[in-house]
Amino acid sequence: MADVHQDTRPASLVVSPAPHVTGSASSARLSWSVAFCLLPAAAWGVFLFGVPALGVLGVAVAASLAAELLAGLAARRVTIGDGSAIVTGLLVGMLMPPGVPLYVPAAASGFGIIVAKQSFGGLGRNWMNPALAGVVVALLSWSDGMSRWLPVRSAAPTVTAVPPLEALRNALTAGAPRGGALEMLRASGYPWSGMDSSVVGWVNTHVLSLFGWHLPGGCFDLLVGNISGTIGGTSVPLLLLGAALLLSRRVIRWQLPVTYLAIFCLAAQVFGGLPAGGGWFVGNMLFQVFSGGGLVLGAFFMATDPVTSPLTRTGQLAYGLCLGVLTFFLRTFGSLGDGVPLAILLGNCLSPLIDRFTRPAFPTQRKAAPG
Amino acid sequence: MTRRPVFRDGVLRDNPVAVMLVGLCPAAAVTSRVIDAAWMSVGLFFVLLLTRLCQAILHALRAPDLSEPPAPGAPPQTSVFPLRPRWLGSLLLSSCFTAAFELILLAFAPSESASLGIYVPLLAVNCLVLERFQRSGPEDEPESPVRVIARSLREAAGLGAGFAICLVAISLVREILGSGTITLFAAGSFGGTIEVGGLSSVPVRALTYGGGGLLCLGYLAGFARLLGRRKRRSGATEAGRS
Fold first, then answer.
1. For residue A32, what are the domain limits?
2. What is the ipTM of this complex?
């Protein structure tokens, strides 16, 4: 037996337990890349709504950082450097309406960081998405402030600002004549922009008339996100751009957001017409996806939060299914925002259970299983 | 023989809400206003105290154990309270006193009775659970009945006070932050409600929902654990020094 105390290993070898992952990936890098990919949509919000939106975003991020610093000092473990607080603050700001009083984003960020994240042990131990927890508390507490929408800057100052989704809900509760989403909005006099009417008119007369098709007004506004809504949720193309970046860098996986959106679209298309008095299969899923709110933002940037979503691919498919169904029901029958924040929070609660059911088995265990 | 401080234990070491996590239903449900929490605490305090008192007296009178045949030659015991399962006595007593408290509340504070609702009758359950929690006395020396009764009462008062402190603390946090007010007894020119400047116009209404109560409860329990751990640690270092 050799002398066990004699260390003959080369100095360059590092002995450590699994996982043996090398690379430059770290929590901080992931956070920064998510924050970077959120920037285009946030910048669009600032462009659309001007200084108030910038103020809301700034206050949300600043409050988030301050809360992280305070909680870190209290726990003697300052983790402000991992960048996750910036992502949380940015998401809180992007889910707020631009006209919200500034104490709301500050309180939402503070609640998210201190209660939903640091109280449970910090990043990686929070079972609930901090940004969404903050936003849901804000929705429950200051529903008045959380519905102060602003018109887009290019609109005439007389225009009353309501996101298309809210306008549709208002029209439904007011008992307007039933029909498709865009028809109902036109009937209630929803103010689309001048650019929208010229672009849709041009496309209708020069392109689609050849096939005998016709686009309703508002399509262009909805497509580019030139609508009133939350600061970060209006522009679907820019959100998709950020999501594509994340996907290409493998920060997120496609299974979860794609299942989520697909199930939601399916539900919206099949059952979405029922509340409006239509039949089956007459819902307008594209309207539901593009009409502001936080669906795309939530699907790619919040549901995919690696801490609060299931670990396995099968689990993520199941999770996406749950989220899609929950979002559809909460949006159609709920009264709290557009249903996305609450649906993802409920999904977060289910996530450990899904992990438990989809735990991968070792080959030996599989063989030993009966049947 | 070391005599444990039974009253202080009921408030701190064995606090019903923050440590034993008993009686969470009222702690989450009736703590959105301070006055509700205060009435609930008063109710529990007196029902628990009276139940304990009666139980201790009956116990001191030595109810005979009917499950065992009397020893031959022993004098026949006179049965004072022959119900042997102890909890049955507790159940009867606590539900009697709860009903009495309910009637008193209905007579003197009917609006309060309405806002507490089902949680007043449920006091009986809380008291039953807390009544079961009873430490036996020191085993090495027999105690006089008076001393047993006194200890039992101190213990009940400690538990009741611990319950009251937790409920009022939770309700203060919830009402100040959640509604921006403090609702107390109306007396004379004082209308009973204190408005907290700045908060009463934009309260954190989420705290007034049931979830807010559970949140405060969680923080309270966590805080109690933290205190307990710190105390144990300091106790350990003291023991190490001596």
1. 27-147
2. 0.79
